[in-house]
Write a structure and sequence with these properties.
It contains 11 helices and 15 strands. The chain is an alpha+beta fold. It folds into 2 domains: about 90 residues, no CATH class; about 270 residues. Helix 3 packs antiparallel against helix 10. It is rod-shaped and about 140 Å long.
């Protein structure tokens, strides 16, 4: 081997070692970056006697796809659980203190006390006050549900805007990958950026990907709708200014295909958008229906009856008074319009004794002919609250139960679904964390390993430097001998 060849080999070794050292140093610097994939500097032979460093990015497509799926599932579940926590407090109060079930129980107690002393007008006024609390609970609960739906609508609009922005950024990253691949440049940084954007996109909708020539990537949703193919597909949504009971929310469209809402406490929703749609149109709407059915049950239970006369509203009334709502049929918005009958409300100039005696709808409905100690009607009202009646099954609770049981079952329905959502959220969060950890172990940076490699490269660099020094000394000796 000639001295010039030896010198060339030593110089090449120094350059390759320097490049390898640069790659390892970059790995160490980005060890804490969860979106960074480890680089490997592989020394390859390009011609007889010639070596170069090829930089390769460590990937694991299977683990990456599993992580994307886990992120989507957890995002949808977390959106549902977080929203249910907020909705439950807004409608029922902390520990259900202001729920319809609680205030109906207070009304029953006030009725029972009034029935034991029907001549006590103060006790009659207490029943009216308890009835007002029931009305307030239903009115404010209905408003809270619709305000929540409006708020959720705004969150959906924000999420849609964020998703469109991410898709636009993905187009830029994908273009950088394609351009770099065609020119033969290292595109590792662009690939990292593209994968990081995919993780963010999967938080909103479930994604599936496949690659084409020049590392071009196509994104579809879980159901096959194209989300990105050369250019981003439009994600559209028209937010509503406000909601009323029974009003349907607008759908979210991807490339003119609607996103399906999730279902169940352990929701089928993948991605935040599906979870928010389930909250707005599923959970909140069902809760509103249960409030409306509770209101209808109260109006029916306290309706005045008379022989050969139609039932008419009594203690509780509504916009369709004096008629009583049809049995077993949901009336959208009834919880928002229910009120205490003014003819029995002392604050409106009414007389509470009409509850004891009957006659809020005229003489034909007067039941008391026995004087101030008459309690039959009061006892009957209390009994009706515990007697089974028909409820609309569309509200999601048992179709036949008493009003008091129905209100309690409504809390049970919500509590059961929330518990399922909480358990599923913990499980899906753990899966997302474990899949991210597995992906990091496979493609991330182990600092100890990198530092060990850096030490080996230092030894290689020193050996190459000594070789150059030896060759240099030999050439100097040769020149001196010639001279």
């Amino acid at each position: 081997m000639s001295l010039s060849t030896a010198l060339s080999i030593a110089q090449s070794a120094l350059m390759n070692t320097a490049r390898q050292t640069s790659v390892v140093s970059r790995n160490v610097a980005d060890a804490s970056n969860p979106d960074y994939s480890r680089r490997q500097a592989i020394v390859t032979s390009t011609a007889p006697g010639a070596r170069s460093v090829d930089i390769q990015r460590v990937t694991n497509d299977l683990l990456f796809r599993q992580n994307l799926g886990a992120l989507s599932a957890w995002s949808g579940q977390n959106a549902l659980f977080s929203g249910m926590d907020q909705l439950g407090v807004a409608v029922n109060g902390v520990d259900n203190a202001s729920s319809p079930s609680s205030v109906i129980a207070n009304l029953q107690q006030a009725l029972q006390l009034y029935a034991t002393s029907p001549s006590n007008q103060n006790l009659g006024a207490s029943v009216i006050d308890a009835a007002k609390q029931v009305v307030r609970s239903l009115n404010e609960g209905s408003k809270a549900v619709q305000d929540f739906r409006t708020q959720t609508d705004g969150q959906i609009a924000t999420a849609v805007d964020d998703l469109n922005s991410l898709l636009s950024q993905f187009q830029d990253a994908n273009t950088a990958v394609m351009t770099g691949t065609r020119s033969g440049n290292d595109v590792s940084d662009a690939l990292d950026q593209r994968d990081a954007l995919l993780k963010k996109i999967s938080n909103y909708v479930p994604v599936s990907t496949f690659s084409r020539g020049d590392n071009d990537m196509v994104i579809t949703t879980g159901d096959g709708t194209t989300l990105f193919e050369t250019i981003p597909r439009t994600v559209s949504f028209a937010a509503s200014a406000g909601y009323t009971a029974g009003a349907a929310g607008n759908a979210v469209y991807i490339d003119n295909v609607p996103i399906s809402a999730g279902a169940g406490g352990n929701t089928s929703a993948s991605g935040t958008l599906a979870g928010l749609l389930q909250l707005r149109d599923g959970v909140a709407s069902t809760m509103q229906s249960q409030l409306d059915e509770t209101a209808r049950g109260l109006i029916t239970a306290f309706a005045e009856t008379a022989p050969s006369q139609p039932n008419k509203t009594g203690l509780f009334t509504w916009s369709g008074a004096p008629a009583v709502p049809a049995a077993g049929t949901l009336v959208n918005g009834l919880a928002a319009s229910i009120s205490v009958n003014a003819v029995m409300d002392p604050s409106s100039g009414g007389n509470p004794t009409l509850l004891r005696d009957g006659g809020a709808n005229g003489a034909a409905y007067v039941a008391n002919t026995g004087g101030a100690s008459y309690s039959t009607l009061l006892i009957a009202y209390g009994d009706r609250l515990d007697q089974p009646m028909a409820f609309d099954p569309a509200a999601g609770v048992s179709a036949t139960s008493s009003v008091s049981d129905y209100a309690a079952n409504s809390i049970g329905w919500f509590g059961g679904m929330r518990q399922q959502a909480s358990t599923a959220s913990d499980a899906k969060e753990a899966l997302a964390s474990r899949s991210a950890e597995a992906l990091s172990n496979a493609t991330g940076v182990n600092v100890d390993q990198e530092m060990s490699l850096l030490l080996d490269l230092e030894h290689t660099y020193q050996a190459s430097a000594r070789m150059m020094k030896t060759v240099d000394d030999m050439m100097a000796a040769l020149l001196n001998a010639v001279g």
